[in-house]
Amino acid sequence: MGRRPTRTLDSLPTTYYTLLLLAEIRREISMAEMSTGCLLLQAVLPWPTFSTSLSPTLPNIKPSRRRRRYHAPIVSKQSHITPPHSSSEIVPAACGCNWMEDYSTGHINSASNGRRQSKLFSVFPRTPAAVSSVQGLFDFICTGPLLDKVGLTSEKVTESIDKWLRCGSQLCRLFQLNELYLNDAQKVRIYHYYIPVFLWCEDQISQHRSLFTDAEEIPPLVIGFSAPQGCGKTTLVLALDYLFRLSGMNTATLSIDDFYLTAEDQGKLRDANPGNRLLEFRGNAGSHDLSLSVETLTGLTKLSKEGLKMKIPRYDKSAFNGRGDRADPSTWPEIVGPLTAVLLEGWMLGFKPVPIEAVKAVDPQLEIVNKNLESYNEAWDKFIKSWIVIKIKDPSCVYEWRLQAEVAMRADGKPGMSDDEVLDFVSRYLPAYNAYLPTLYSEGPNGSDPKHLLVVDIDEGRNPILGN
Question: Rounded distance, CA 459 to CA 238, Å?
């Protein structure tokens, strides 16, 4: 892999367009937040000095008039801004994700359908911060470990820098982060992880739609996210869904958890497999309602026209003292077509059966789980046309990540498992990880096409790294 060429700020195209674009993004902010939006704008791209020869296509646009319109002071790279005080406190959009916590505290609003929601706004911390240039951000983007995997080069980043800045601004609003005060972990998560994956998904959707003529109805592309528990897949899907919607694309999000058996049927499964701790509670293959999976995914792929709609299931993990049960259908969210994509995530998505000798060597109780797994390709995997696999080095990370989430919940005054309960909970999943992850990583998900597969290696901090 060759070294990427160094680019300078002067070589970045559409600098002035970038400025105007970000200004337009800020128009979405309420009038009460207008001055705040201007400061955020300058945090990403300081006001340059324009000459009359900047662009022959913009002869009638005067940058100084644009500045007066937003009442924003001119800030240089060496400048510091002392932000105004704010009575609001921000909140990370997911428990246990410490990359969002350094400048954020607060609470999470819960929707009835079980999906996390949060207010979309930015606030200023009470300490000054240096304002960075678009050149610095460009250089940072080009060091990302996913750039080559998603088919991007520094030249392509140069051409699309407006889009990178817009997406970064939108994600900061989603996660209630201040663009002036992003630390290294937050910049990595946004510019090295979420935006590259979003651009890859966009390209997959474009390829998918090119297979159909204008006269044909285009079914939504189902993108599968296979990732161990606690590694941040739900937050990733949240970010992608948000960016899709702001780009004018309608998406539906699902988890394989939404297909768990009802509490009654889970009890029957437990009774039919006495002594098998892998099937005592929800989780492993056999504890899902596969007919509901097929019905739901089939229905979603048919939402290709306006006016079509359907409800999709949700699972209430808090029911029966944490044993869980399917949520009441009256609380299920309604999805309205036409859909552009369906984002389906799960910890065992793409797992495929392995030889019985290999299964017994890991855990004899896994034998029935391995047998159950034979039915999952028809229920889930065959619907998925593009795959994202989040790859970890050691399944033991799952325990640490789950423990972090439970500690955060307890610290926030919410009920959470004790350390021993976390250990018992994770231990019921580890045999499947040890049996199936090696095949998933070496061969890809069940039925996947290497041309439509993105593997994201992450470290113990859930950040993307260079993989093999």
Answer: 20
